[in-house]
Amino acid sequence: APPRALTEGARGTGVTHGLADFLAQEELDRYEGFWISPDGRQVAYESVDEAHIPQFRIMHSGSPEVGGGAEEDHRYPFAGAPNPKVRLFVVPTAAGDAGAGGVPTPKAFDLTGPFGEDFYLARVQWLPDHTLVAQVLNREQTELAVLQLDPSTGASKVLFAEKTSVWINVHNMLKPLGTSGKLLWASERTGFRHLYVYDPATAGLAPLTSGDWQVEEVAAVDEDAGMVYFVGTAQGEWLGRHLFRVPLAGGAPERVTDDP
């Protein structure tokens, strides 16, 4: 079948659909601007409005070309100046109204609840129950809220939040744990990054790991065995990195590798 548009109205307006905004790429290590649901029936996408941001000319001083070949113009958000206006939509992949050229009608999510209009969209992912989870940061990047979004209604709610006096380090360690609604999470709320399990029944975060050492990344989640494998440092061994595993039900982490 030929390609079919799922969105419209962005071309030539200073708006993009399905592309990560510059700040997400530069500051937050996020390069995706759309997310396909596991069943392929829906697509969540980022809409970015940069029309209010002035053009800034970047010169390529090392370029062998001159004139237009040695320069490019971008809508560049400077520190303290307005940021792009970011919104999140979801759209069905089925064909829409023929009168609208077959483009389906998108549904918008309100992400402004935690921090108002000036926020960063840090992460988006689908959950097994066909809802979405989005991580949003305040502009100072000292607060982060994890939102659950319902594509059927457009409703959003805060599951949990992080706050620090210094800096939130965004990561990719949020993992759904089956269809229970529980989420694996990593937080630096103790001063060291450790793993937690969010339980919707209590709306709380229970620690899986703790101590004066750091979890670097989640390597795998073995739900059948009830284990999380992660890479991290060890108590008193800050220069080495090892693979560990820890039971999802709680217990002491076990080091899997010996060589650094």
From TrEMBL:
InterPro entries per UniProt: Peptidase_S9B_N, Serine_Prot_S9B/DPPIV
Gene3D superfamilies per record: Dipeptidylpeptidase IV, N-terminal domain (2.140.10.30)
Q: A biological process (GO) annotation for this entry?
A: proteolysis
Per the record, the domain of life is Eukaryota
Coiled coil start-end: none
Q: Which residues form the Dipeptidylpeptidase IV N-terminal domain?
A: 4-259
GO molecular function annotations of the record: dipeptidyl-peptidase activity
Name it.
Dipeptidylpeptidase IV N-terminal domain-containing protein
Q: Which species is this record about? A: Zooxanthella nutricula
